[in-house]
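Pinned message: reference record for DNA-binding transcriptional regulator, PadR family
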Amino acid sequence: MNVRTVCLAILHFKDATGYEIRKLSAEGSLSHFIDASFGAIYPALARMETEGLVTARIEPQPGKPPRKVYSITESGRAELLAALSAPMAPDTYRSEFLLVAICAEALPPDVVAAALDRRCAQLDEEIAHLSSLALKGKSPPAQWAVNYGIACKTAALDYLRTHRQALVAASGTGRSALPADCHDVDVMAAASAPGAIEAAPPVSPVLSEVQSR
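Predicted structure (tokens):
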């Protein structure tokens, strides 16, 4: 997903400044889709303003410099619809935990066990966070996204708890963690592919966060 689409998606829900768009894409809901820098956002907004996809207005602020607020136009909504209707790129996922798992044979059992415990604790926290969002009565699409995130993370947590001992038992055998044929590296890549049990990206309710601002 490119910067233009992210900017238009945010403006679809609410007018925003470049700073607010950056905040959402770096720390908010849309950080799960793209991490857009100020250096990318402002040129994209300027180009879209020239193309008539967004408009901008200057709003005074007491005791502060005026701010430039962007709004989406009907042409911008049409471009957003076209962009979101196009085939999606595959999800990407990176996991330090999976690297520990694939290298388990070269690690002491207590190190592997500690990594499993930490990952389970992280998933517990993430599920609790998403569950708290689910209680706030958000829109149906936002609720759907929250429930999807809970389902993915719950499945991952169940797998880790059910198969924890198998990974611990395989650790510490002294085998090279990265064999010459790289077969295990291919396995790790497959495990990180979309649809893998531990590969679900963090899901956050985009609609709820944008609409609440």
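Pinned by admin. Summary line: The first strand starts at residue 16 and ends at 17.
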